Amino acid sequence: MHERLSFYTKRDSSLHKLNPLTKLTLAFSLVLISFISPWYWTPHVLLLLILIPLSFLGKVSGEFLRALFRLILPAAGFLFLMQAFFQPIGSSIIFKIWFLDITKESLIFAFRNAMRIAIMVSSFTLFLLTTHPSELMSELTRRGLPGQFAYVIISTLQIIPQMQAKAQTIIAAQRSRGLDTQSGFLKRVGSLIPLVGPLVFGSLVEVEERAIAIEARGFTSTREKTFLYDIPDTNLDRALRWMLILLVIASLALRIWLS
Amino acid sequence: MAIVNLSNVTYKYPLTDSPALQNISLQVEEGEFVAVIGPNGAGKSTLCYTLAGFVPHFFKGELTGTVEVDGKDLHKATLNDWVLNVGLAFQNPFNQISGAKYTVFEELAFGLENIGIPPQEMKTRVHEAMKLTGISDLADRSPYSLSGGQQQRVALTSILVMQPRVLVLDEPTSQMDPIGTREVFGVIRTMAERGMTVILVEHKVEWIAQFADRVIALHEGQLLLEGTPSQVLTSDLLPEKGFGISRYTSVAREAQKRGLWKEEKLPVTLDEAVDGFIPLSPRMRGQG
User: Fold this and answer.
1) Domain boundaries, chain B
2) Across residues A175-198, what is the average pLDDT?
3) pLDDT one-digit tens code per residue, A45-100
4) Cross-sheet strand order for the sheet of B4-12
């Protein structure tokens, strides 16, 4: 019931110890490089050469590979098939199924896009697995992200599971009073109505109270915020971030130079 | 000089016709522990919101009269300065958890981070406050995994840790068992003795009688009675106007009508009650 909406897996690894901003930069640069680098096989190589060993370094390889093989690659595979069949580009037909042509161009296009999506999702998966959401937010707030913005993101992560739990309670309460939630489709849709009222209106009242509660604790105070935990930003962090930014610039330059 | 000073305060929520508070005047001394009682809709929570600055700065609406805390005028203040002086904790503990923190310790530090307390002092203050309210063992738990009573203590602690001059509490023990209630009243008493001014809305009159310095009875937005706990809590007006009163008072009042109560004053607590009854003679005892 008290499940959190967060992928964070607590481990003691060097990846966990990196500054959240460094990991965020890593995730963004991998995605950017996979999009702007000139060769179509880049994402593929990046995924294998960087993300998988990184997941071992972060001691989250089990979780990461499970997500990769069960979710990310099947979804990317589906995307690949759709685009390979339905993308009307190119003329060098490889083979035909009924009215669908598979061309060399559409295959390359589909492969590249599917791999881009795969690398995008998997690099952020690795990021979320190794970064505690509140660490990320306090690091970003420290660097100038508005506190309200950080609050909305982080509280949503915790409050959605609470709302799910509450929905379950309301359903149980309505069922104990004879509401039918298990027979035909129309009946089930109808039975949503007594759930939505209490949940939505209840949440609106809660929002007001929560606003008062955090305001009472100086949420909009104009004083400069401080932070309970110091999140270390080492020379290694800074060096890695610069390196990643340079890599992005380099791939952009290559793209321009080669085209 | 009184730290809290309300004079002729009248307040109407937006879009309502009748005022929630009418012509309230009230002075509270520094370090005083004042309890507020009243039936539903008497304006107790509105009074709390007014003291804490949320009326009118959050709820808008029309506030007349003056509200002063520590010599500062509420009309001229901004809410985020006001909350540094007046802390507010209220009934529903679930909604007082910020949702932005993953452990109780971080939750308690949330307010201190907002007002820019240095980390070292923050940790000291949080540890002290947790010790005071007896929740040190909850430090590493998720605030959402706690029971209602524990959450209520976290909510109270999260305000105590901010060290406001005036502490306004709106039924902070509603979800607690008798042991929890006793402990929390003890904490509030300690805070008052250390010089924090406490204004507490509470239904549990037996506890008020033991701990509060003064009681204020609100009825339909107006100040009905004001005085020491034993004066106010045993007043004949209370049952007439629909206030909850102590069962010991009710029993003694019945006894008084039948000539079985020897003291002049009516009791509020058990201890006061046991001494006041006229012992039954053996003959009467026989009659049952």
Assistant:
1) 4-245, 246-288
2) 78
3) 888 889 999 999 999 999 999 999 999 999 999 999 888 888 777 777 777 777 77
4) B21-28, B4-12, B62-69, B72-73
Collect all residues of chain B within an 8 Å Cβ-Cβ radius of residue A148: none
Q: Just give the CATH number of B4-245.
A: 3.40.50.300
By CB atoms closer than 10 A (0-12, 13-18, 19+), residue B28 is buried
Contact status of B99 with chain A (Cβ, < 8 Å): yes
Position A4 pLDDT exceeds 70 = no
- Tell me the nearest-neighbour CA distance from A88 into chain B, angstroms: 48
Give me the interface pTM, i.e. the ipTM: 0.88
Collapsing DSSP to helix, strand or coil, A37 comes out as coil
Beta bridge partners of B7: B66
Residues A87 and A95: their CA atoms lie apart, in Å, by 14
* A114–chain B nearest CA distance, Å: 35
Chain A, nearest residue to B168 by Cα: A216
Rounded distance between C-alpha atoms, residue B275 and residue A204, angstroms: 51
Supply the pLDDT for residue B284: 58
Helix (H), strand (E), coil (C) string for B194-245: CCCEEEEECCCHHHHHHHCCEEEEEECCEEEEEECHHHHHCCCHHHHCCCCC
Contact A213 B155 (CB under 8 A): yes
Domain residue spans of chain A: 14-131+234-258, 140-216
Partner residue facing B119 (CB), from A2, A213, A227: A227
| B166 touching chain A per CB within 8 A | no
Q: Which two tokens stand for residue B48?
A: 């709390």
B164 touches chain A (CB under 8 A): no
Q: Residue A96: what are its φ and ψ, rounded to 5°?
A: -125, 135
- Distance from the Cα of A5 to chain B's closest Cα (Å) equals 12
User: Chain B residue with minimal CA distance to A208?
Assistant: B95
Test mutation, A6, A228, A229, chain B, max B CBs within 10 A: A228
CB-based contact (8 Å) between A228 and chain B? yes
Question: What is the count of residue pairs from A and B with beta carbons less than 8 Å apart?
Answer: 115
Separation CA A151–CA B40 (nearest Å)? 34
How do strand B197-201 and strand B21-28 relate by DSSP bridges? Answer: unpaired
Q: What is the pLDDT of residue B118?
A: 96
Q: What is the pLDDT of residue B286?
A: 52
Classified as helix, coil or strand, A36 is helix
Tokens standing for A205? Answer: 């009242």
Residue A159 contacts B, CB cutoff 8 Å: yes
Where do the DSSP E strands lie in chain B? 4-12, 21-28, 33-37, 62-69, 72-73, 86-89, 166-170, 197-201, 214-219, 222-227
